[in-house]
Write a structure and sequence with these properties.
It is built from twelve helices and six strands. The chain is 47% helix and 12% strand. Helix 1 packs parallel to helix 11 (248-264) and helix 2 (75-82) crosses helix 11. The longest helix is centred in the first third of the chain and has 25 residues, at 34-58. The protein has a six-stranded mixed beta sheet, with helices on both faces. The mean pLDDT is 96. The structure holds adenosine-5'-triphosphate and magnesium ion. Magnesium ion (MG) binds at residues 71, 209, 212. Adenosine-5'-triphosphate (ATP) binds next to helix 5.
């Protein structure tokens, strides 16, 4: 089956200059129909699983996937589906909520640094350090709770944070942590439909939060903050994927293919068995075989 990977480039942002969110259609489905999309997604989930079995034993590279998006953009569902075939022992998932007192007592990259994946692992951030230039930028009163010295909390704080994030992400790349950042790009209309669906479906009602309605009022502010964040931090070593998210199945397909492409680019292969190890294996095989009297 032909994959979808070759069409990924249109969603990948490696350079921020001139980036405009309005040039990206949240309802795009890449010309794929949902039935073909489901088959491609299943195939992608299997290929990702196979790649993880190569990532894990070499204990050198790690993959870090950051998920950002407005409420109901489908972060949880995308993470659940895309990772459904992967060995959970090789994955760490961290959800970042509003910071508590201990987190507020540290610099903003502290909590994300602690959650970085080990070598050989896939790390998933459900929300991330970007919240500190998104929700905090949209609600500047949140910045006041972060205990920054007054002389450092001036009007340049956003520009500085974005530069610090870009520098930190370059550091991660140089440490062998391959970073992918997914912005699940949802339309305001589709968010309305999904929030209504949460209210109407007893299985989903628990997901509804009055805060989601409150944040919806700040939609344009968030879109501007996302645009600025993507502009300032898109780089070849830390690309953003602007993932059309109005069709959940399509968003998942883009995410899984992006992860596959990133892992394939590492040229992973099965660990090489050195002659000394081969001898050890042969000896072990003899011992086990002898137990059976053979
Ligand atoms: P769902 O789509 O299921 O609602 P969610 O990611 O919105 O998932 P919640 O627990 O509802 O999960 O929300 C987490 C909240 O924490 C978000 O509103 C987010 O903006 C907020 N948050 C995360 N990081 C920060 C931060 N550094 N400062 C302030 N708020 C933050
Ligand atoms: Mg929420």
């Amino acid at each position: 089956m032909p994959g979808f990977g070759h069409r990924l480039a249109r969603y990948r942002i490696e350079a921020g200059a001139g980036f405009r969110l309005k040039h990206h259609d949240p309802a795009d489905h890449g010309g794929v129909d949902p039935v073909a999309g489901a088959a491609l997604l299943a195939d992608g989930v299997a290929r990702l699983s196979a790649l993880q079995t190569l990532l894990y034993p070499q204990h050198a590279w790690a993959l870090l996937c950051v998920f950002q998006g407005m409420d109901a953009a489908g972060k949880d569902g995308a993470i659940g589906h895309v990772m459904s075939g992967v060995n959970p022992q090789g994955v760490s998932v961290t959800s970042f909520q509003a910071p508590g007192p201990e987190e507020l007592a540290h610099d903003f990259l502290w909590r994300v640094s602690r959650a970085l994946p080990k070598r050989g692992q896939i790390g998933i951030f459900n929300r991330s350090h970007y919240e500190d230039v998104l929700v905090v930028r949209v609600h500047p009163e949140l910045l006041e709770r972060q205990h920054l010295p007054a002389s450092l909390a001036g009007k340049h704080v956003w520009k500085h944070r974005l530069a610090d994030i870009a520098a930190w992400e370059l550091y991660l790349a140089r440490q062998g942590i391959v970073l992918l950042k997914f912005f699940l790009h949802l339309s305001k209309d589709e968010q309305r439909r999904r929030l209504l669906a949460r209210l109407d479906d007893p299985d989903k009602a628990w997901k509804f939060s009055a805060a989601d309605l409150a944040e919806r009022q700040y939609w344009d502010g968030y879109q501007r903050a996302y645009e600025k964040a993507i502009r300032a931090t898109a780089a070849p070593h830390a690309p953003w994927y602007v993932v059309p998210a109005d069709h959940k199945w399509f968003a998942r397909l883009v995410v899984v293919e992006a992860m596959i492409a990133a892992l394939e680019a590492l040229g992973l292969h099965r660990p090489v068995i050195h002659p000394a190890q081969a001898e050890e294996l042969a000896a072990a095989r003899r011992l086990l075989a002898d137990e059976d009297g053979r």
